[in-house]
Amino acid sequence: MTKIPELHTGSTRNRKGYLSPIEDFQIPFGIVEGVQYGPTLLITAGVHGSELCSIEAALRLMNIDGHQLTRTLFVLPVMNFHGFRARSIYVNPQDGKSLNRQFPGNPLGTASERLVHWPSGIFPKCDAYLDLHGGNLDEELKPYTIFNEDSEASKQLAVAFGLETVVAASGTRRVSSSYATRLGIPAITAEAVCNGLVSEDKVSLHYDGVMRVMAYLGMLQSPALPLAVPERRFVKLSVPIASAEGLWYPRHRVSAHIAINDILDEVRGIFGEVLVTVTAEVSGEVLYRLPSLWVNSGEQLMGVAYMVPSM
């Protein structure tokens, strides 16, 4: 199937299958539809193919009973299917590009650019969008959600998802949720778990977050009691970038608190010579970091969350 399937038939259903968004590329999908009128929610996962807990949570969401829902849940659980099968970190092996840096894509571009252009026909059919991520094989992180800082509706989705840390980010990013928000669809990115690990408690971070969002949107016929969530904190991110390739020696682990001008890490040559020393530009907490011993020039080393009083 190459076209976007019909999302609203007026009948309760649970449909699964494969879509071919571009030539020689298939991805699985699931549609769960209830008979009553209500919002349509789009879920994607596996935009990065080694973020396994988010993929498992999305696969489970496709098995929800349609009689529990109003309107439609549309799930694309493994967007980067080639990357998933190849255990590829970040990129689509077809062209070596990260899908979540290509939006809005290009219908005449490379495989990744064409693939991410395809959802532009889906976003306008939906009332909200959640992109589930979850700590690639080379990432350590503390769970958080991200929303476009100029979208109050997206901020409320992030609050409803229920993770403690909520990151306000620029609306110009070339990621899926940011692009959807620019098209007028409230959207967030959820980051949970690290190092590509799969466990029930980590899968539940995504699954329960989606259920809370559906309850918030009025999509559940009989909403369960709200799950306990911590008080939210709203932050922004400072993201130091490697200016040289080499051996990377970070000095702070995830959740560590740092002060302005603290030394964050060093990039060294293969024989130990210091090539770059990176210092903190803000005071805050290490929200995620790259645990790999090797780093390439231009890669994100870590994200430092810092409080913004006006938020």
Automatic annotation (TrEMBL):
Keywords annotated in UniProt: Hydrolase, Metal-binding, Zinc
Claim: Zinc is one of the keywords in the record: yes
InterPro entries cross-referenced by the UniProt entry: AstE_AspA_cat, N-alpha-Ac-DABA-like, N-alpha-Ac-DABA_deacetylase
Residues forming coiled coils: none
Transmembrane segments: none
Classification via Gene3D superfamilies: Zn peptidases (3.40.630.10)
UniProt GO molecular function: hydrolase activity, acting on carbon-nitrogen (but not peptide) bonds, in linear amides; hydrolase activity, acting on ester bonds; metal ion binding
Cofactor: Zn(2+)
Domain Succinylglutamate desuccinylase/Aspartoacylase catalytic, first and last residues per copy: 38-216
Keyword Electron transport: no
UniProt cross-references to Pfam families, sorted A to Z: AstE_AspA_cat
Recorded superkingdom: Eukaryota
PANTHER family reported for this sequence: BLL3975 PROTEIN (PTHR37326:SF1)
Protein name: Succinylglutamate desuccinylase/Aspartoacylase catalytic domain-containing protein
Originating organism: Talaromyces atroroseus
Organism phylogeny: Eukaryota, Fungi, Dikarya, Ascomycota, Pezizomycotina
